[in-house]
Amino acid sequence: MPHLALRGVRAPPEDTVTTFADRIGRLDSAGHAPLYLQLQKQLREAIQNQVLSPNDALPAERDLAEDLGVSRITVRKALDGLVGEGLLTRRQGAGTFVAARVEKSFSKLSSFTEDMISRGRVPRSTWLSRATGQVTPEESLTLGLSPGAPVYRFNRIRFADDAPMALEYSTVPAFCMRGPEAVEASLYEALEKSGHRPARALQRLRAVLFTPEQADLLGVASRDPGLLIERRGFLRDGRVVEVTQSYYRGDAYDFVAELNAAPS
Ligand code: 16G
After folding, report:
1. Over the stretch 202-257, which tens digit does the pLDDT of each residue have?
2. pTM
3. Which fold has domain 106-255?
């Protein structure tokens, strides 16, 4: 007798059906934090712990709201914030996805290490050099130091999950830390420990073509496009604590910024 059942097409048993809310964790409607902030936290953690992977689609806002038992406005507000941070991306007509390229907020004063960890990536660096030096006449203006003042220089290749992402050349005044060895995995961690993490920064972004030497270090082709961001970080009292030139791979990074219309 022919076997008529369709093989492999079987509804999963009731208790194995997991909704999106089960994957990211439910919200606590009795909790103190506003629901949109709770949702942002759950999504951030899901991305960081790789429960959600790059390019994963989020359910439609309406479905997500229903699944979580919150309003669509709450969902919209939570997602807007994470799009602004660069963790999620919206594709016209297709929905909201976990960002695959590194979408970095242009207005957030975060470190490379923090940026990668928040995306579930493992940051690492190799040293090109880590040395004590003196301010050049040209640098003295940007750093606000007298020519000849001692500085530390940190030149690194920055990796995420073993993929080279950026070249970084940082100079910090010597008053910021006890010596160049104070910086191990993260410059900002070292600055934070000594109470000199920048509280404000100015950034300039420019398109560049990688030189043969830079391309070699990053494992890309010579004259491939890159983004040069120069960051000048300041303490609250106005002293400059960092001048860094970061050369990011153009094929791996998007810089995003949220803009608000001036109040009328
Ligand atoms: C980021 C910063 C860079 C800073 C570095 C510290 C931009 C454009 N640049 O790459 O200025 O020096 O982080 O990272 O965001 P670390 O603490 O991981 O060493």
Report:
1. 999 999 999 999 999 999 999 999 999 999 999 999 999 999 999 999 988 888 88
2. 0.78
3. Chorismate lyase (3.40.1410)
**At the top level of CATH, which class does the domain 14-98 belong to?**
mainly alpha
Q: What is the pLDDT of residues 68-84, one digit of tens each?
A: 999 999 999 999 999 88
* Cβ(229) – ligand 1 distance below 6 Å: yes
CA 196 to centroid of ligand 1, rounded, Å: 14
Contacts of 63 (CB under 8 A, 6+ apart): 20
Give the residue extent of every domain in the chain. Answer: 14-98, 106-255
- Ligand 1 mean position to 144 CA, how many Å? 20
What CA–CA distance (Å, rounded) separates 121 from 35? Answer: 27
CA separation for the pair 92, 94 (Å, rounded): 6
